[in-house]
Amino acid sequence: MKNQVAILVNKKMAGSIFKKETIDFLHSFADTNDFLTLPDAMNIDYMREALKNADACITCWGTPSFAPDMFAKGSGGKLRLVAHAAGSIKNLVPKEFWDSGCRLTSNAPVIAEDVAQTVLALVLNSLKNLWGFSKDTRNGQWSGGESSNFITKRLDGLRVGVVGASHAGRETIKILAPFRCEIVLSDPYTSPIEAQSLGVKLLPLEELLSTSDVITLHVPPVESGRHIINSRTAPLIRDGALFINTARGMLVDEKALIAELEKGRFFACIDVTDPEPPPADHPFRKLGNVILTPHIAGGHSVNGRHMLGDNAVKEVYNFLTKGLLKYDIRREMLELMA
Fold this sequence. Notes:
Strand content: 5-15%
Structural class: alpha/beta
Radius of gyration: 22 Å
CATH topology of the largest domain: Rossmann fold
Strand order of the largest sheet: 8-7-6-9-10-11-12
């Protein structure tokens, strides 16, 4: 008898994360609820019905939070795994989940690879001033390499400061390493021996900000990280630096960062704000030394979405057939997770 897997993903999201081949593989080892009956908006009533005999389930963006009684003792369910095809799980499972014996996995490490590629794109485009040159040529100019708007740089030999050794921070370190730049890290939870294995040098945040040519934030959105860029630390960012935030808007006191950007001292690529979206008249939308993107760094590419579906199904398969999980989440990890 096949295992039962509940697909708790709305119809549009399911269409974006599951390829036909992925669905076929899922059906080769498990029975599921009918993909054709998935609702346009996932809801608790549908979830309850789909979970009645499920051994595992797959969730994603748009899946409502599980109700506490779904994991209460004596609830009668046989659910053994929640495979979250997206990243953060903090608003997905209630506190009752952690004593239920059910397991949990997340695609945060897969999304981190996507974030790192976005960071690399922002770094290279910004250092080469492709934003400025493209604007110039659209306006009929042909300033070439002698443009006075920006002195272009190559990545080799520059110091890159990574703030936060999260999944995305580690993937960023990995993707930048071949460019022969000096990578430094600020993270209070990373030991010197771990930093050595990552090939980076640990620095206090203040020293990283004041000495790095490129600064990229990868701190999870936990309260201890709120406004780590503030009226004290923002002025430390060196003149001519590149500042990137693809993590969360709450890490930055925007008023303090804007005060420094308005001086024209450095360039910023901002993918996340607090709140989102920012108002139509927000300075990030208007400053000439800011590139603002609409929270697209991770998990929003066509083939990247397919990887999320593939990995969720792979985790379900490995757990149901071998008892193994690659990206297992434990309760004690929550404090330091997005």
